[in-house]
Design a protein that fits this description.
By secondary structure, this protein is mainly alpha-helical. The protein folds into two domains: 135 residues, Orthogonal Bundle (Hypothetical protein af1432); 67 residues. The protein starts with a helix and ends with a helix. 30% of the residues are buried. This is N-methyl-D-aspartate receptor NMDAR2C subunit.
């Protein structure tokens, strides 16, 4: 938690926001990720996303905007809802506007958050690609870690009947397999693509 708070404070320093205000807003943002129903989409996930973004920082055009998008992309998360990304983008806009973050940065971050709905963007949107790859890095994790992730997702959707969950989950996974590539950036494609596809095929087999 302390490492995350320091990362948040350093990010806000980029925009000239004083530490006292940064500390207070961190508490608010951390609370958003601490709802009882969250098993995977917690601050641990945010920390992993931010770490992957940092590894890809040399590819970034607007690193602070990507980092803000990473912080807020799951700020609203309700497994029963279909508009989490839209609501997360609106929450980010309101939150960051109150801190007087430049409007162009807020707009860029919001657009990146919205792209996580379909996990798709344009070839020219390098910053967006970084966020999407960071968010999906878990797909290319070692098998044991991947299995822990899938169990956490199932818990978050514990209210969905088993048959319905299996059908929906397989559809989501098949959509990733049908893509020419899961990862946009060269480093993650080289490091994780093969493992991600292996993990996904294995999960589909277990669900079918």
């Amino acid at each position: 938690m302390l490492q995350l708070q320091r990362s948040w404070e350093q990010l806000l320093q980029t925009f000239g926001i004083e530490q006292v205000k940064a500390q207070a807003t961190f508490t608010t943002l951390a609370d958003a990720y601490s709802n009882p129903g969250r098993i995977y989409h917690t601050l641990d996930h945010i920390q992993e996303v931010l770490e992957w973004i940092d590894r890809l920082r040399t590819y970034a055009t607007d690193l602070p905007a990507i980092q803000l998008a990473g912080w807020f992309h799951d700020s609203i998360y309700d497994p029963h809802a279909t508009d989490n990304e839209e609501r997360s983008a609106l929450y980010a806009q309101s939150f960051l506007s109150s801190l007087a973050v430049p409007s162009e940065t807020i707009q860029a971050a919001s657009q990146m958050i919205l792209s996580t709905k379909a996990h798709w963007t344009e070839e020219s949107q390098r910053d967006c690609q970084i966020l999407l790859d960071a968010d999906l890095a878990i797909l290319g994790a070692p098998a044991e870690r991947y299995d822990t992730y899938t169990q956490a997702i199932r818990q978050e959707y514990g209210w969905v009947p088993e048959t319905s969950y299996r059908v929906g989950r397989v559809q989501v996974l098949q959509n990733f397999l049908q893509r020419a590539r899961i990862y946009w950036t060269a480093p993650l494609y080289a490091a994780l693509e093969e493992q991600a596809r292996e993990n996904i095929r294995r999960e589909i087999a277990s669900l079918s």
